[in-house]
Amino acid sequence: MSTESPSESLFVWVDGVRLHYQVLGHDTGRPPIIFTHGGGPGSTAWSNFRLSAATFAANHRCYFLDFPQFGRSDMVPVQGPLWSWHARKLLGFMDAVSIAKAHLINQSFGGGVALRLAADHPERVARIITIGSQPVDQGVLAPLPLFSKHAANLMGDYYLEGGGPSLDKMRVLLQRYELHDDSRLDDENLRLRFQASNNPEYIQLLKTPGAFGEWENLLPVLPHIQAPVLLCWGLHDWFGSVDVPMMMLNRLRNAQLHVFGNAAHHLQTECPDEFNRLAVSFIGAEQ
User: Fold this and answer.
1) Is 1 contained in some domain?
2) Closest Cα to residue 124, out of 85, 91, 89, 96?
3) Based on CB atoms within 10 Å of each CB, which residue in 91, 145, 229, 265 is the most buried?
4) Model pTM score
């Protein structure tokens, strides 16, 4: 599978915050695609979607954006409701690079940002794909594991305990929380995630009260989203069972749900060919 490299690092300023991004592909007259990442240690848009990049760049200009507090973007505190704050930065990024309307493909955390943007600015969003995104506070049948006492220290354990970030700790984290099949963890992804996580400025954020903003439940705003949405979910996702996207599906106006039976939270890493075929078909359905 091709994993051609994106552009060198590029930066823009939005509301006084420096955002890092990379670009792959060329303007083909079709809406560009913005890829956004999950919220786990060391997450970046490129590391999360490097196995999908070449497929989409063949027909679209692709932007790989790191949110504040991730990758090489500024490590600054979030002010106010989480998804709304990040959605304003995403909107500002689109304005800064002259994107009038885009498709949004998003891992986990990024899906919450994309859905918030689509609710607030429907004219800027063409189609949305989310992977393992749960910008809600519960499932239909059970609380979300992310809100349990067992996950309360997930970030702190990685960054603050046992000597801080390490390759071995990153390997354990990715296999435990993000993958169903441990063998799908490749050395390059491990390297990229560890490299991005080994950041003293992020560790300082963890020690700053309120640095990650206020939790924001998006369930009430889902009916306001006009863009078609493809919800992707791994059957073995540690962060929640399939009742979570089913609840979201029931609230969205125009949505589909695809469950990957042999995958967990990062299904585009475990099943890249299946995900790429599905996603290209969905994006290509734009009228």
Assistant:
1) no
2) 91
3) 229
4) 0.96
Helix intervals (H) in 30-125? 45-49, 53-57, 82-96, 109-120
- Summarised one tens digit per residue, pLDDT across range 235-274 is 999 999 999 999 999 999 999 999 999 999 999 999 999 9
Selection from 35, 80, 76, 66 nearest residue 53 by Cα: 35
- 244 in a structural domain: yes
Mean pLDDT of 23-48: 96
Q: Residue range 221-248: average pLDDT?
A: 96
Secondary structure in 3-state letters for 10-31: EEEEECCEEEEEEEECCCCCCC
pLDDT-based confidence at residue 285 (cuts at 50, 70, 90): low
Q: Check whether 1 has a pLDDT greater than 50.
A: no
Compute the mean pLDDT over every residue in the chain, rounded to the nearest whole number.
Answer: 94
The CATH number that applies at residue 32 is 3.40.50.1820
69: region left, alpha or beta (phi > 0 left; psi from -120 to 50 alpha)? left
Nearest to 57 by CA among 4, 107, 128: 4
Q: Residue 141 domain-assigned?
A: yes
DSSP lists the bridge partners of residue 256 as 230
Rounded Cα distance between 129 and 106, Å, is 6
Residue 87 lies inside a defined structural domain of this protein: yes
Domain count, the chain: 1
CB distance 116 to 47 below 8 Å: no
Enter the tokens of residue 197.
């996580």
Nearest to 256 by CA among 245, 268, 265, 266: 245
Residue 233 is predicted with a pLDDT of: 98
Determine how β-strand 102-107 pairs with β-strand 78-81: unpaired
Domain of 187?
A: 10-283
Do 137 and 184 form a contact (C-beta atoms < 8 A)? Answer: no
Distance in Å from the first CA to the final CA of the chain: 29
Q: Which pair of structure tokens corresponds to residue 170?
A: 């990153």
Instruction: Answer yes or no: is pLDDT of 287 > 50.
Output: no
